[in-house]
Structures are given as structure tokens and as C-alpha cells.
Amino acid sequence: MKIHQQTIQLNQRRRGFHIITADILSALPQISEFKAGICQIFIQHTSASLCINENADPTVRIDFEMYFNKAVPENDPDYEHDYEGSDDMPAHLKAAMLGSSVTIPITNGRLALGTWQGIYLCEHRNHGGSRHLVVTAWGE
Q1: How many other C-beta atoms lie within 10 A of the C-beta of residue 85?
Q2: Regarding beta strands 48-54 and 2-10, do their DSSP bridges make them parallel or antiparallel, or are they unpaired?
Q3: What is the distance between the alpha carbons of residues 68 and 17, in angstroms, rounded to a whole number?
Q4: CA 134: distance to chain centroid?
Q5: What is the pLDDT of residues 14-23, one digit of tens each?
Q6: pLDDT tens track, the chain, 140 positions
Q7: What is the dihedral of CA 55, 104, 10, 5, to 10 degrees?
Q8: Residues 91-100: pLDDT tens digits?
Q9: How far is the C-alpha of 61 from the C-alpha of 116, rounded, in Å?
Q10: What is d(CA 106, CA 108) in angstroms, rounded to the nearest whole number?
Q11: Are 136 and 31 in contact (CB under 8 A)?
């Protein structure tokens, strides 16, 4: 069994949903060495998240942002945690809803994503800064 792990830093991105599949593949080219395995991507933040979804039509990402803004609105007077601004607590809630990691099979040296699937960085802050990911691949 082989294991490769790399911590990567993503440049700051605006609030929204961003495809980062190419960033992952660039950071861990050793994925090509695996006949079969698993790739796990973990984000080291509590106000951004990861998910897998549509990679072709950008309106899907726009609709994701619209939906989550409706589901978890800013400026709710019931929020107590608002030290860093009106987007702070909503960002934590959105991140909890979507999750901090994704796991993808590796087949014949490639991520076994479906035809229309891509890995999203879900940036929930107006000014979230750079984001750190730990990418781990293991298998044969």
C-alpha cells in the first residue's frame, strides 16, 4: 500500500462556490501512481466547506450560493456569534451543513469522478482569506 499526503494553500477566492478539481490534481500528481485507491480532501477551516457537484454549468454554482443565502440568512438578530461580521455565524452554519471533507475513489490513476462532477470549495465568507486543504491518497 502507498500513501501520499500534501497540504495545499488555495488563494483567496470571493464568496461563492468554486471548482478546485485542477488544484487538487496539480497538488498531488502521485494520484496517477494508483491502480485503485482513495483520495480524501479535508479543509482546515470552519467557515468554508467542500462538496462535489456539477462541473459544467456555472449557473449551478450561482444557484448554490442563492439557496444557502436564503436558507441561512445574514443579520439574524438571534445569532450571538457575530464578532467578525454579519457573514460570520452564517458561514459556520453553511460549513456544518456541507461538511469539511470529500472522499473520492481512485481508479487507474484518476479520480473516479462522474462525467459532470467537480470538487467545490464552498467559500462562505465575504473575505475568507486563503484556505488550507490536506489531501491524502492511499491505495495500490
Answers
A1: 13
A2: unpaired
A3: 11
A4: 11
A5: 999 999 999 9
A6: 999 999 999 999 999 999 999 999 999 999 999 999 999 999 999 999 999 999 999 999 999 999 999 999 999 999 999 889 999 999 999 999 999 999 999 999 999 999 999 999 999 999 999 999 999 999 99
A7: -160
A8: 999 999 999 9
A9: 13
A10: 7
A11: no
The continuous run of DSSP H or E covering 103 comes out as strand 101-107
Cα gap 57→35, rounded to integer Å: 30
State whether CATH 3.40.630.30 applies to domain 2-73+83-139.
no
State the alpha helices, DSSP H only, in the chain. 21-27, 58-71, 88-98
Determine contact, residues 107/33, Cβ cutoff 8 Å. Answer: no
| Neighbour-count burial of 24, counting CB atoms closer than 10 A to its CB (0-12 exposed, 13-18 middle, 19+ buried) | buried
How far apart, in whole angstroms, are the C-alpha atoms of residue 13 and residue 95? 16
Classify 128 as helix, strand or coil.
Answer: coil
